[in-house]
Specification:
The chain has about 375 residues and is of the alpha+beta class. It is about 35% helix and about 20% strand. The strands form two sheets. The chain has an eight-stranded antiparallel sheet with strand order 4-5-6-7-11-10-9-8. Helix 1 runs parallel beside helix 4, helix 1 packs across helix 5 and helix 4 packs across helix 5. The longest helix has 24 residues. The relative contact order is 0.12.
């Protein structure tokens, strides 16, 4: 198979396993992340409860008990120092393995394999499903195996079995667990606001802007340290439980990401994420029509005033970054307030549905 093409396809599975593995294994050590339905006990140390207005927006109903990951306890009991050192040595060869083998997959075949991977990963994380044996490290033990000495992954020249997908998932989680022990997160310094306050502010922002009840969604948080020119940011994520299973079954999944200034407690970005949404690029004719259509600017102003509840006077509003956003199928509008503060409302084309609302205070950067 073409090496570049195969690398792109296998990256989907490696990314799905690796990134979610890091999230599942390391994030719970940093945050108390679960909030369940109203009138039930929230599984956080601070006993966070959300009291939100009922919403017409459907969310995934979660029956008790809330899904709980079994991964960390499993890895703690089933990994020894020799295995850890083997992983460290493998990762030191290259951050990503060299992939050898595989066959030319159609887009439909790749999509099916990815969806199978998602469903199996949720079963691995929440239901205790494990491969019959770990990822082999030598040829002759299976069509899927890893040479840790060179960090080379040999993959089947055919459709993957569930066992092979589980072996890859298991290996990714083992890598993430080992990395979390070798490079533990730095202790989070005392914050001006508690985690529960950040969660409440984020949930209220989602409710205001999208009329969405997040009380039945899984919640996780992370504090992004300053770096690369960015200030510190408190992130709050809302997503359905067993989201990967839902996506693997072809269900539409909505998630919400909220960014808060940890110093002021002000929400600076609220975004609705739908990974299955189809974006419609804006061609020249449509772009010219949008430039003459004031409904986009009116909708952005309406969101700022009626949804966000902004009381300050709006002095001007205009389309922004049109060339870039036309390619993305988005219409972005800058809404400037009387004190120089700014909102940027990004609307999906052609529905005018709000994708995100970003806020920049007037004193930003001073």
């Amino acid at each position: 198979m073409n090496k570049k093409k195969w690398s792109a396809s296998i990256a989907i599975l490696l990314c799905a396993g690796g990134l979610f593995a890091i999230s599942a294994v390391t994030v719970p050590n940093l945050v108390n992340s679960t909030v369940v339905a109203k009138d039930s006990t929230a599984a956080t140390q601070e006993d966070v409860r959300l009291s939100l207005t009922e919403s017409a927006v459907p969310v995934l109903k979660v029956e008790a008990p809330v899904p709980v990951s079994t991964v960390e306890d499993y890895l703690r009991k089933n990994m020894n120092q020799e295995q850890m050192d083997q992983i460290y040595d493998s990762l030191s060869k290259a951050p990503e393995p060299t992939v050898v083998g595989g066959h030319d997959e159609t887009e439909a075949e790749l999509n099916l394999r990815t969806k199978r991977h998602w469903v199996l990963e949720d079963q691995y994380v929440y239901d205790g499903l494990r491969p019959q044996k770990p990822m082999p490290f030598e040829a002759g033990q299976g069509d899927l195996y890893l040479d840790p000495k060179t960090n080379t992954l040999y993959v089947p020249d055919r459709t993957w079995t569930d066992e092979e997908l589980l072996q890859l998932i298991d290996w990714n989680y083992r890598q993430a667990y080992a990395a979390s022990l070798r490079f533990p997160e730095k202790p989070v310094p005392p914050q001006k606001y508690s985690e529960s306050e950040f969660i409440m502010r984020a949930a209220e922002s989602v409710r205001k802007l999208y009329d969405a009840d997040v009380s039945k969604l899984e919640i996780s948080t992370s504090l992004q340290q300053p770096g690369f020119g960015f200030p510190p940011q408190q992130w709050v994520y809302f997503s359905p439980y067993k989201e990967r299973t839902m996506r693997g079954q072809g269900l539409e999944v909505w998630k919400y990401n909220v960014i808060i200034d940890p110093e002021t407690g002000v929400v600076v970005d609220t975004t609705a994420v739908n990974l299955s949404a189809i974006r419609t690029p804006i061609d020249g004719a449509a772009a010219a029509t949008i430039q003459k259509d004031d409904r986009w600017i009116k909708e952005a102003k309406r969101i700022v005033k009626d949804k966000q509840g902004e009381q300050r006077k709006i002095v001007k509003a205009y389309l922004t970054d049109t060339e870039i956003n036309n390619k993305r199928g988005m219409v972005a509008v800058d809404v400037i307030l009387e004190d120089g503060s700014k909102y940027n409302a990004e609307l999906r084309y052609p529905s005018m549905m709000l994708r995100c609302l970003i806020y920049e205070p007037a004193d930003k950067g001073k």
